[in-house]
Amino acid sequence: MDRIDRDKSISRRGFAQWAGTALAAGTALAGSAAAAPADPLTAAQIVDLIKAKLAAEGVVWGPSNFDGFHLGDPNVPVIGVATTFQSTFQVLQRSLAARKNFVISHESTFWDGFDPVEVMMKDPVCQAKIRFAEQNRMAVWRIHDHWHRRKPDPIFVGLARKLGWAEYYQLDTRPRRYEIPEMSLQEVARNVQRKLGTQNVVVVGDRNLRVKTIGDCAHILSSVLPVLGTCDVALVGETPQHDTFEYLRDAMSLGMKKGVVMISHEGLEEWGMQACADWLKPLIPGIPVEWIAAGDPFQVPTIRV
Amino acid sequence: MDSELTGRTADLIVCAALGDPMSTARYEGLCAGSANSRVSGVMVCYAPTLDLLRRAALEKKNLIIAREHPYFLHGGLYYSYGTDGLEAAMRDDPVVRAKREIINANQLMVYRYASAWDQFKPKAQSLALAQALGLKPLPWLPTDRSRGVVCDLPRTTLADLAQTAADRLKAFSSRTVGDPVSSVTRVAVLAGETDPTPALARLLADPKIDGAIAGAGGTVDEVDGAIAYFQDVMASGRKIAMLAIGHLPSEAPGCAAMAKWLRGVFPALPVEYWETPDPSWIPRS
C-alpha cells in the first residue's frame, strides 16, 4: 500500500464530510468544553508545532499509513491535550472529564492499524464514539511511526524506566536488550507483574530457567526470533499465540534454554506516551497537557490449578 | 502396514469431502513432506509440534492433519505483512530445520486444512468449544456463515467459566476483559482469535449477549484491535465482559471434532486425535 499523508487527506476534506454521516459537527455539549482563551491554538496548529520539534530532533515528517488525524475536526480550538497509548472510548471519556479535548494517541481509534472507519460506520459503538467526539469538540491525532523514530525510541525507553531496569538497558545492541542480575524466569515474570501493576503476564518457558539477558520486541514471531537468537528471554507485547508460543515449545523441545514473557500491548508501549506528555509541555506552555493511561485491558481470574 | 493411499490421494479425498476441489489457501494443504508417501496412519492435532512429530514417527502415523502450520506460518487476511517476513526468517531457522529433518527422515506428511474446514463448517470450532465447556448453542439460521455461536446458560461468572475451562480444557492462562466476577447469562463463543473486528461486532449484535468466550485476544488486524473494540463496547454503556481462554485450548475441541469427522472420510484407516498441552502459564501468588 502506498503511504499517505493522513493529515492532508483528512483535514482538507473535513472530518464530518469524511465520515459521511449525519453526525452534527461543532455542536458541543453544554458545559463540556471550557471557555476558550482568546485565539487558542487549534489541534492542527499544535500538530504543526509537534512536526517542527520532531524535525529539529532529526525526525522529518513523512508519509505514514498511520500517523495523522483520525477523529474530529483538526481545526478545533484546543483547551487541553491528552496523550495516550490508545484512543479508546474510555480514554476519550476520561480525557473530556479532565478537560482535554485534543487526544494524541499512539495506536488506532477504529480498531485496525489503518483505521478504515468506513468498515464500521454502521456499528452503533463506532457511531457513538464519533458522536461523542463531535459533540464534545474533540479531535484525535495519531503519532505512531514518527514517535518510534525518535532516538532513542521513547516507547522502549519508557518501558525500561517503568520496569525499573533503565540501568540494565542496552540501547545500542541489536536487538535491544536488558542485561539483568541473574534470576529465574518466574522471578522475571513476577518482577514484570509488580512493576507494571498487572497480573497479565503470560509466560512460556521453564520457570527455573536462569535469565541474564532479556530482549524487547514487538508483536509478531518475526520480531521475536532475533531476540531469541541472542537473549535468554523475549519480552513481547500481545503476540499471536499460535506461532510464538508454539515456536518456543519446539525450541525448548530441542533443548534451547529460552523463554517468552508476553505482556499486553498497553503494558509494552503506553509508558512512551507518558513521556510524550512531558515532551509536549514546553512546546505549548499555555495549554494543559496530561497523560491518560489506557490501562491493561486484561485481568486474570482466580482459578484452582 | 502402509495403505495403498498416498498423501496426494488422501488430500484429494479430504478436499472432496470438504467440498473444496483443492486446498489453495496460503500455507494450507501439503505443508511439509512428500505427497507421494504411502499413508501408514493418520494423526490429527492442533499444532504439529516437534514432540508430536517424533511420536508420529515412532508410531508410524505419517499422515498428520493439523490446525496450525508445522513451520509457524499461520497466514490470514491481514496478517501477511508479518507472515511474509516470517517465511523468510524461517528458511534457515534451527527449529524449522530440525522439524524438517524429522519429517523427511520418516516420510511424514503434514497437511493443514484450517480455512477449508472453517468454510466447510463455519461454526465447527466454536461449536466444539461450547460443547466442551458444557454449553448448548442456540439454533442458528442456515444462512449464518459466521464463526461464532451463542449460548444461554444459568447465571454464572466469568471466573467460574474460567475454572470450567481449566478443569475441562486444561486452560490455565485464561484472562478476562472486564471484571472476572461479571455475571453472564448469554455468551457468544468464538474459538481462536476475536478478530477481525467487524465479525466480532456482528457476533455481539444481539443486545442480550452479556459475555464472550474466546481463545486469544486477537492479533490479526494490527495486534489487538478487536480487544480495543470490545473495551469500547463496554465503555459505550453495555454490560458485557469477555473470557479469553487461550488460542490452543479454544481450538483443541474443534480439532478433536475434525478427527471424528475424518474417521468417516477414512473408514479403513485408524484416525487418532493427539492432544497438546497449553505451554503457557501465568505467575500466581
Give a quick precis of the structure:
The complex is a heterodimer of chains A (305) and B (285). By secondary structure, chain A is of the alpha/beta class. Chain A contains 11 helices and 12 strands.
Order of helices and strands of chain A: HHHEEHEHEHHEEHEEHEHEHEE
Lateral strand order in the biggest sheet of chain B: 1-4-3-2-10
CATH homologous superfamily designation of the largest domain in chain B: NIF3 (NGG1p interacting factor 3)-like
User: The CATH topology of the largest domain in chain A, please?
Assistant: Udp-n-acetylmuramoylalanyl-d-glutamate--2,6- Diaminopimelate Ligase, Chain: A, domain 1
Strand content of chain B: 15-25%
How is the main sheet of chain A built?
Answer: 6 strands, mixed
What is the end-to-end distance of chain A? 47 Å
- How many strands of chain B? 11
State the end-to-end CA separation of chain B: 52 Å
Give the helix/strand class of chain B. alpha/beta
CATH top level of the largest domain in chain A?
A: Alpha Beta
What is the CATH level 1 assignment of the largest domain in chain B? Alpha Beta
Anisotropy-based shape of chain B:
globular
Oligomerization? heterodimer
Task: Enumerate how many helices of chain B there are, as a single number.
Answer: 10
Q: Tell me the β content of chain A.
A: 15-25%
